Every structure is written in C-alpha cells, then in structure tokens.
Amino acid sequence: MRRAEADRKPAISPLHDPRWRSVAYQAVLCVIILALFYGAIDNAAQNLQKARIAYGFDFWNHPAGFEISQTLIDYSTASTYGRAFWVGLLNTLLVASLGIVFATIIGFVVGIARLSRNVLVARLAGSYVEIVRNLPLLLQLLFWYNAVLKALPEVADSLVFPGGTLLNNRGLFLPQPIAGESLSLVPLTFVVGLLGAIAFRHWAKRRQESTGRQAPVASVALVLIVGLPLVVFLLSGMPVDFAYPEMGRFNIRGGIEVLPEFMALLFGLSIYTAAFIAEAVRAGIQAVSHGQTEAAYSLGLRPGQTLRRVVIPQAMRVIVPPLTNQYLNLTKNSSLAVAIGYPDLVQIFAGTVLNQTGQAVEVIAITMAVYLAISLVTSLLMNLYNARITLVER
Amino acid sequence: MNTPPATQAAYVRQTPVAQLPPPASQSGIVGWLRANVFSSVLNVVLTLLSLGLIALVVPPLLDFMIIDATWTGNDREACLASAERPVAGACWPFIWERLAYFTYGFYPVAQRWRVDVFFVLLAVGIVWLLAPRAKARLWGALYFFVVMPLLSYILLLGWPRYGLPYVPTTLWGGMLVTVVVSAIGIVFSLPIGVVLALGRRSKMPLVRLFSVIFIEFVRGVPLITVLFMASVMLPLFVPDAWTPDKLLRALIGVALFASAYMAEVVRAGLQAVPRGQYEGAMAIGLSYRQMMALVILPQALRTTIPNIVNSYIALFKDTTLVFIVGIFDFLRTIEAARVDPKWATPVTSTTGYVFAGMVYFFFCYLMSRYAHDMERRLATDHRRRRKRGRR
Q1: Mutate to test the interface with A, among B209, B237, B288 (most CBs of A within 10 A)
Q2: pLDDT tens track, chain A, 394 positions
Q3: Which fold would CATH assign to domain A81-175+244-389?
Q4: Pairs of residues, one from chain A and one from chain B, whose beta carbons lie less than 8 Å apart
Q5: Which of B37, B217, B220 sits opposite A119 (nearest CB)?
Q6: List of chain A residues whose C-beta atoms are within 8 Å of the C-beta of residue B237
Q7: Nearest C-alpha in B relative to A349
Q8: Residues contacting residue B309 through CB under 8 Å, at least 6 positions apart
C-alpha cells in the first residue's frame, strides 16, 4: 500500500515536465529549420526563374568549350562539363597525394630533428615550424608562384640540370621515359618478389615462435622486392628510352611538362603541412614516457630494436589521428589552387563551370559533396584503424 | 701506544683541498659544444649540415632585407639595379608610400580616424578579455560581444544624421578588412560554437542530430567552397531586397565556418570538466541553464582558452581566403600594389610578400606565445600532480 503510494509519480503540469519540454523544444527547432529551408528554396526558385537560369543536372552532358592547362585524361574543348569535372578531380587528387608524400617525409624529418640533442638542429627545426605555421598558406603559395617560379629565366635561358631536365618560367620539363618491349617483365618480377617477401616473413615468424630463432626479414625482403626487379631490368638491357625536352625558340617540345602552378601548389602545401605534421610527430614521440625506453634497455633490447619495437608503435598510436587530420587539411587546402590558377576541382568546376552555366546551387553542391565524401571516407578508415590499435585495458 | 689522534698527525690535512675546476673540455663553451653539438660522428655531420643550411639562407636574406635594400625614393627608379648598385634588394619606399593603402584600403582620407578608433576599441576589448589580471571580465565579455560590435558598426559604416558620413564597404580594404573579418569571426563563432557544442552533447536526439550535421558538414569542406557558397548561393536564397553586400556575404561564410571549428574546441573543453561537477550542480538543484552558465562553462572555457586562441590563429590566417571572392583584404592590397606600374621592379613582389609575411607573423606569433603562456599558467596543478606521482 505504502509502496504503491510512493511509486505514484506526483502530478506535474506538462509545462514543467522535462520530457514534454524536450519534445516541445525539438518540435520548435524542427519547425524553424524547415521554415528556413522552405524559405530558401522558395526564394531560390523565384530568383532562378527571374534570372532565367536552368536547373537540374542536364548541364553535365553539355559541351564545356574551354581549355584546361593540365589534363590527366583525354580532354578537349568539345568534351562535356562532366568530363571537365573528372579532369579537375584527378588534378586535385594528384596534387593532394604527392603533397601528402612530401609533407610526410619533411614532417617526420623535422619533427624528429626538433627532438635532437644537437641544439643547432633542434633550433633550426623549431624555427622552420614557427615561421611556416605562422604565415598564411595563401601568402606562401603566392610567394612561391609569383616571387620564385615566375621570376625564373625565360625559355631561351632555361636552367639545364644534369639528366636533361629544364627549368624556366613556363615550368619544369622532365625527360619522358618510353617503355621498351621487355619492360613488362620488371613489374612482374616486382610482384613475384613482393609475394616471396610476404611468404618469407610468414615463415620467419612461425619459426621464431616455435624455435626462437630470428631470420633477417628486412634484408631478405629488400633483396626480393628491390634487388630482383633491378637485376631483371639490367639483364634485359635497360629497355627504357627517354624523350628529352628540346628547347625551341619560344617553347619547349617533348618531355613531361610540369606547370609552375602545380609546382607552386605542391611546394606550398608540402612545406606548410609538414610544419603541422612535425608538431604531431614531436608530440607523439614525447608522449611515450622515458620509462618505456629504460625498461626496453633493461630487458636487453638494442637501441634500434627499442625504437622499432617499443617507442615507434606507441608513438604511432598518438601520431596517426592528427596525421590523418593533416592529410585531410592538405586535401582541402589544395582548393587554394584557384588563387594561382592551377586547374583543380574548385578552379575548374566551382570557377569556370559555374561562371559559364550560372547553376550555382548544383555546382557548389557537387563540389562540396566531393570534399565531404573524401572527409567521411577518411574518418571512417581512421575509426577502423583506431579501433584496431586502441589499447585494451583490463 | 701513546700515538696522537689521527687528526693531529702531521700528514693529515686539517682543511679540505680546494676543489679543482672541471677539465676545460667538460665545462664552459667547449664542454657545452662537445656535449650538445659534437657528441658523435652523426652529430658532427648534422651540425655541419645545419651550419651549411644557415649559411645558405640567412646571409642572402640579410643582404636582401638590409644591406642591398633601398630605403628612400619616390618611384620605381630608386629600386632598380644600376651600374653603381648591381644588386637591388628590398624596395622599402614602396611599402612606406603604400602603408596607408595597406591599412585602410580606399577608406576616405578624412574619415580614417574612425578606423583608428575602431582598432583602439578592439584592442581594449581583447586586452580586457585576455589579460591574466583583468578585472570585471564579465563586463569585458559584454563589451566585447555586444557593445563593441555595435559601436564599430556605426563607426565604420557611418551614421549621416550624427555627422558620420556613410562609407560603403566597397571602399574598405587592407588591414581594416582583415581585422573586421577576423573580429567578426571571433565575436560570432564563440557564442554559436558554444551553442553547437552544447547541442552536440544534448540529450535531445534532434538537437544533437542537427548540431552534428552542421559541424561535420562545415568541417568536411574547404573554406573556399563555403565562401563561394556564401557569395554565390546566398543571394539566391534570400529575397532580392535583402541581398547582403559582398563583404557581409563573406563575413557570414567566415562566421559559419569558424563556428563549426569553435564548437569542436568547446566540446573538448566540456568533456574535460569532470562528471562530478555536473552531478554536484544537479545535486544542489540547479537547472540546466544555471548549471551550464554558473558551473560548467566557466570551467570549460577557462581551460580551453589556449585552444580558442590557437583556433583564432588559424582563423586569422584563413581570412586571407576572402581575397579569392574579390574582397580587398590586407593580402589583396599587397597583390594589387605590387603590380602597380609606378613601383613595378623585379624586387617589388618579393618586398611586398616579405612585408606581408612579417605582419602576419607578428600577429600570429603574438597569439601563439599568449596561448603557450596561458597553457603553462593553467597547467600548474596538473604539473604538481605529475610531480607527486613521480615521487
């Protein structure tokens, strides 16, 4: 009897009941957001009608009619806007992936250098990080493009590097390798070597687990993966020819042309992002307490083993999340290409295509969707990786 | 067996020997060098490499900025290389002459005092909020987030009835625009960011959903696309009569963008507040609003001050992107001035960029130093705890 009385909830007016309140708040929020969306769409429809702008995605298949200075796939002025989109996307991915490679290399070197016991090296790396991080990326890009690459000599006075590479204010001209007939053997042996290395590692691991004897996995793998293809390459008589760029009167013929816009963007992005990666690397290494190193030494591990087996695996757990973040930032920052005229996704699509078609809503939506997709896929992979390496505590 | 005690024996010293100084190779500059710079073969190589790098970078930079630089002159002739001066360095008179343009853009000369007053108002607000020993910080916040924006709005745009002529935003430029964009970013992103962060941690599923969608959407796309969206799509979404001017559109874009990043910074701060604080506040019967305003947010925001400042450094650097949607910020005025025929020389571009770099570096470095100091100040109790643990 008593318990039933206590169980009965006191009567609360719905005005003060937290549950009703929460429902009401959410309903109000929904109404406001829906109203905003409705208003925006209604206005957009009216404004588009007034300006006689088409809507929908029909423009995708219309001829684009403009030229693009760097195309990785076939493209001409007769190609469609859709084709131009793919050209831009590939250009973005090209500069982003190369930028990631360079930024990672510079970033790790600088980050480790900052922790060096050599004061000079540490200070030098520190100044690099401080200077680069405190200058806007756009300023750095403009500097590389306008003050450095555009100030290079004219075509006729190109700088000539050993190996037939030319550098002038129109860009960098590299010799173009032309594959001979038997070159296909090299990638084949590479694959064979790779499989062999994996098999050897598997065998070595099982033997170590059962007998405790170690095998030189690293050097065997190196021989199999790098040495084997190299031997095949040399034995088959180096079946690669180079088409060297030749200086014409006004322009350069042949070879691979690297646009100055591309170089400026690649330099700028790599150098800028490397400073942030260096900080992430430093923080990650410092996060591994010194006790871990001491414990490893007292177990009898050599310094190299300590680094490989104890410090790096723990540091990577701290480094990888911010590292991924920096990779994403680099990819997003590659959209600054528009300022120096490198034909990336934003410059081609949100720039030229938008100006020609006037279909702002569709074009911007597609552009944003691409970056969003890249971000979401990356964070998905990141979460999977994190779940794999998270320490399982008792 | 009557030997004197050892202390009186002639061969026992009565006073301690004076300590010898450490060997010369272990102390002083030589010892320091041996320990830090030349301790191993690898280290020697690294040291030499670093010295080489310094020699490669520093002397040419000094040559360009000071030794070969031109300090006076009226036009490009002064900055050109000539027979008696084969190498021309930085062209500083170009900067002196254009300094007003870099600061105010095309803001009418007679009205420029208004911009100066705005800079002072902003500086007062920043010092009030951020100085470690500032008094009445709550009033400071009121000033910074309400009074100052209103005053600045009237001051910069004008109020013809009271003798302040109207100055359209198309005439604004240079540092003024950079400061306005970053100030707006700060003033709006913090409150919106706090609301979004609270929304993301809310128990109401729809509120959480909308907050997450907004934050993740904005953080997933580049600022340029947000600015493009603001400048191209916004006019479509509002009735014709309301179409915001170009600067306002960019400001909206920047404020939205900064809010999403601020939300994540604030959320990290909220998560760092121990659960006991929430439970304690609920136990003494505070409502949600009281709990947040009086207990949680003051602690959360205090610990996130360094991170907030760090995200403003990023915002300050990102303001340069408004350049791309055609607004004359500081960097854009440099771009415009460097191709001006009056000053066009081979060194003008580099001079302009070096100057812009020094200005941006000055502000960003100042902010990062502040964030760093604040972090150490706030970390005091943390440090104590670690020390105790080690003992």
Answers
A1: B237
A2: 455 555 666 677 777 777 888 888 889 999 999 998 888 888 888 887 877 777 778 888 888 888 888 888 888 888 888 889 999 999 999 999 999 999 999 999 999 899 888 888 899 999 999 999 999 999 999 999 988 888 888 877 778 887 778 888 888 888 887 777 777 778 888 899 899 999 999 999 898 888 888 888 888 888 888 888 888 888 877 777 777 777 766 677 777 888 889 999 999 999 999 999 999 999 998 888 889 989 999 999 988 888 888 988 888 888 888 899 999 999 999 999 999 989 999 999 888 888 888 888 888 999 999 999 999 898 888 888 878 877 665 5
A3: MetI-like fold (1.10.3720)
A4: 150
A5: B37
A6: 39-41, 43-44
A7: B225
A8: B130, B367, B368, B370, B371, B374
CATH 1.10.3720.10 positions along chain B are 92-390
Q: What is the rounded distance in angstroms from the CA atom of residue B150 to the CA atom of residue A368?
A: 34
Please name the CATH architecture into which domain B92-390 falls. Answer: Orthogonal Bundle (1.10)
> Which tokens is B31 given?
């010892």
- Global pTM value: 0.85
Closest alpha carbon within chain B to A276: B314
Inter-chain residue contact B317 with A333, CB threshold 8 Å: no
CA–chain centroid gap for B198, Å, is: 26
- Nearest-Cα distance to chain B for A140, in Å, is 8
Q: Which single residue is written with the structure tokens 């074009």?
A: A363
**8 Å CB contact between A264 and A144:** yes
Q: Which residue of A has its CA nearest to B242?
A: A43
Interchain CB distance below 8 Å, B317 and A375: no
Residues 6+ apart with CB under 8 A from B224: A335, A336, A338, A346, A350, B321, B324
Quick one: closest CA in B to A123, which residue?
Answer: B50
**Could you say which of A44, A138, A375 has the minimum Cβ distance to residue B331?**
A138
